[in-house]
Amino acid sequence: MRLSLLGLGVTLLLAPLLAHPAPALDPAPPELLKRGEYLARAADCAACHTAPGGRPFSGGLPLATPLGDVYASNITPDPRTGIGNYSYDDFARALREGVAKGGMHLYPAMPYTAYAKITDEDMQALYAYFLRGGVDAVAQANHDSDIPWPLNMRWPLALWNLAFHEDQTYQANPKQSEAWNRGAYLVQGPAHCGTCHTPRGLAFQEKALDEKDSDFLAGAALGGWYAFNITADTHSGIGGWSDAELVQYLKTGRVAGKAQAAGPMAEAVQHSFQYLSDADLQAMATYLRSVKAVSDGERKARFAWGEPADEVVSLRGQDFDPQTRDDGARLFLGNCASCHAWSGDGVKDGYYPMLSHNTTVGAQQPDNLVQVVLNGVKRKTGEQEVFMPGFAGSLDDQQIATLVNYLTNQFGNPAVKVDSARVAAIRQP
């Protein structure tokens, strides 16, 4: 699942507003439904609007925000609990302006600031997919947000939109190539990459919406994870990646010796990017390479840190002393080495990745590594499923901190440290 700040990725927080069902729309042509399905994949609608074990797009998934949980709504064509009563204009207004049928303003948890860039042609295809034969209607009531009064009042969102929202479809840059423009459209619009990867201001607004501003895609913390800097900077961003590696990462979630997708990015790969064409993924890579480089002050690339371990060999066969149970090397041997090898080199086919030369371990921010140790990794692309168990139930906060500090010292950036208080904060649901 791809998170927005305020629970990123919520496509429509829509409630039924009419008492009587609307007449059924004529089924759309197959080619239009296919295009709409592709665009819904690119926009990653299912990631937020399909709860675990739930019917597709029927909502109910809680999305954490700084103010309280927001629940993804039912966006199936059910006329009472979903969006079955939405006209095309209703649908387009919700996606572009963040205003539901009847005038209710949507929380900017739904990335309408990005979806505003969707072209009319693509918006028509999305409407056809959701309301003219691409999605099954599911009768499932929506859940009110947990945001307390008066913060849950919607009228201030109109002022937020006036201050921060640009309701304009994507405008092609005639000075750039067709591939660049296609990549810019996908990154800025349907794929809404900036929703996670662009820093936010005090009002939770994205500080930039395209490559003209230096804050765009410069990295941001959200929901206990850190969405990395993906500007063209060689050390802080993706400047050290080849186009082929960027495409491979978006398609599979892994590039040996560089990165393994986890958390929200793994969900984005699983639900969205793996279904995009190679041409579209290449276009995205082309565009990302042009985004203004922003340095976070990193001395070398996240994937360039680390060396194989060797001192842990001396601990093999020794009795485990409960008094030293928090020793990082021992925790590594007892919990990690069976898959990642005692050296941390992993398995050469890449299923169990290297811990050195790994962006999660080499990052300046330890939050993603803490998340992975606590909650594990689950990612499925094609026929391959990657799974790592989490240790939240077997290791306490101090043990997690000790283990993470060992991993960053040995396999990542040794200057990065985490304490048990930060682990406890990340552990909270």
UniProtKB/TrEMBL annotation:
<dbReference type="Pfam" id="PF00034">
    <property type="entry name" value="Cytochrom_C"/>
</dbReference>
<keyword id="KW-0677">Repeat</keyword>
<dbReference type="GO" id="GO:0009055">
    <property type="term" value="F:electron transfer activity"/>
</dbReference>
<dbReference type="GO" id="GO:0005886">
    <property type="term" value="C:plasma membrane"/>
</dbReference>
<dbReference type="InterPro" id="IPR051459">
    <property type="entry name" value="Cytochrome_c-type_DH"/>
</dbReference>
<feature type="domain" description="Cytochrome c">
    <location>
        <begin position="323"/>
        <end position="411"/>
    </location>
</feature>
<feature type="binding site" description="covalent">
    <location>
        <position position="196"/>
    </location>
    <ligand>
        <name>heme c 2</name>
    </ligand>
</feature>
<protein>
    <submittedName>
        <fullName>Cytochrome c, mono-and diheme variants</fullName>
    </submittedName>
</protein>
<feature type="domain" description="Cytochrome c">
    <location>
        <begin position="178"/>
        <end position="292"/>
    </location>
</feature>
<keyword id="KW-0732">Signal</keyword>
<feature type="binding site" description="covalent">
    <location>
        <position position="193"/>
    </location>
    <ligand>
        <name>heme c 2</name>
    </ligand>
</feature>
<feature type="binding site" description="covalent">
    <location>
        <position position="339"/>
    </location>
    <ligand>
        <name>heme c 3</name>
    </ligand>
</feature>
<keyword id="KW-0479">Metal-binding</keyword>
<keyword id="KW-0408">Iron</keyword>
<dbReference type="InterPro" id="IPR014353">
    <property type="entry name" value="Membr-bd_ADH_cyt_c"/>
</dbReference>
<dbReference type="InterPro" id="IPR036909">
    <property type="entry name" value="Cyt_c-like_dom_sf"/>
</dbReference>
<feature type="binding site" description="axial binding residue">
    <location>
        <position position="340"/>
    </location>
    <ligand>
        <name>heme c 3</name>
    </ligand>
</feature>
<keyword id="KW-0249">Electron transport</keyword>
<feature type="binding site" description="covalent">
    <location>
        <position position="45"/>
    </location>
    <ligand>
        <name>heme c 1</name>
    </ligand>
</feature>
<keyword id="KW-0813">Transport</keyword>
<feature type="binding site" description="covalent">
    <location>
        <position position="48"/>
    </location>
    <ligand>
        <name>heme c 1</name>
    </ligand>
</feature>
<dbReference type="InterPro" id="IPR009056">
    <property type="entry name" value="Cyt_c-like_dom"/>
</dbReference>
<keyword id="KW-1003">Cell membrane</keyword>
<dbReference type="InterPro" id="IPR008168">
    <property type="entry name" value="Cyt_C_IC"/>
</dbReference>
<feature type="signal peptide">
    <location>
        <begin position="1"/>
        <end position="21"/>
    </location>
</feature>
<feature type="domain" description="Cytochrome c">
    <location>
        <begin position="31"/>
        <end position="134"/>
    </location>
</feature>
<feature type="binding site" description="axial binding residue">
    <location>
        <position position="49"/>
    </location>
    <ligand>
        <name>heme c 1</name>
    </ligand>
</feature>
<dbReference type="GO" id="GO:0005506">
    <property type="term" value="F:iron ion binding"/>
</dbReference>
<feature type="binding site" description="covalent">
    <location>
        <position position="336"/>
    </location>
    <ligand>
        <name>heme c 3</name>
    </ligand>
</feature>
<keyword id="KW-0472">Membrane</keyword>
<feature type="binding site" description="axial binding residue">
    <location>
        <position position="197"/>
    </location>
    <ligand>
        <name>heme c 2</name>
    </ligand>
</feature>
<dbReference type="GO" id="GO:0020037">
    <property type="term" value="F:heme binding"/>
</dbReference>
<dbReference type="GO" id="GO:0016614">
    <property type="term" value="F:oxidoreductase activity, acting on CH-OH group of donors"/>
</dbReference>
<keyword id="KW-0349">Heme</keyword>
